[in-house]
Predict the structure of Response regulator receiver protein.
Amino acid sequence: MKFIFTYTQIQWLILLLLSAIFAVLNTLAYQPLVSFSFNIFLLKSMIDGLLLLGICRLLLIVIPSANYVKLEPIQQFINYFALGILVTAVWVGLSFATSYYILGSENIEKFVDIIPMNAFIGLLLYIIDIQFIHYKMVVVENKIETEPDTDFKADSNETKLNPEQTDEGSEAIERIAVKVGNKIHVILVQDIIYIEADGDYVKIVTDHGKYMKEDTMKYYEAGLPQSKFVRVHRSYIVNVEKILRIELYEKQNQMLTLNNGDQIRASASGYKSLRDVLKL
């Protein structure tokens, strides 16, 4: 039997593996300091690792959405520092709660003695996590700044179609079938929030989840109804009915906030196309 894992599933497997490694190392580090049995403390560390994994995943959503990379260095430091205190406090509080539940109230005083070390570990892991997230944000930002929008601009110079039409010779898309493992998900066009280019694949973000499919952006740009879907950037096609607000990002670029909370940037030519559809 052949198992095929999606990119998202592989990511979660890696994170769970890191969580398990953290549990083992955390138990070994604390073993000389506590009198609890190895197995009991390993169970507690595994739960703490899952909690830490959840916090890290939350940071991966919160920090990019707050667009920290665009702040001044001093403001970045203040924001990261304040967020670090909050995350460490939450981490210590959750760890204390799990200790109370697993180790029992009679042993909770022993755990109080190692709270400072627990806080230090949480803060250290927070710093490592934000370094990774910030680096990823900087790479994406530099890629957007330096990559020419030539393909998209070339498309925008072509003859415009009636909003209800698709490109000549293209087949109108009414639904999209995506295979995930042994299941096939059928995505209705009206459920699509936006489509993002991802190498040889596209990521289709819907009201119900995110799906990867081996297709091209031009295929969807040509097949989706142009009264509702606009290619606002060489990497994004947006369902205009899912846009909550449009804000000035910098110079001629706009930031679109969608109804699922995601934010994407529109290029100058993409924003012009969007204004045409919205009749602004």
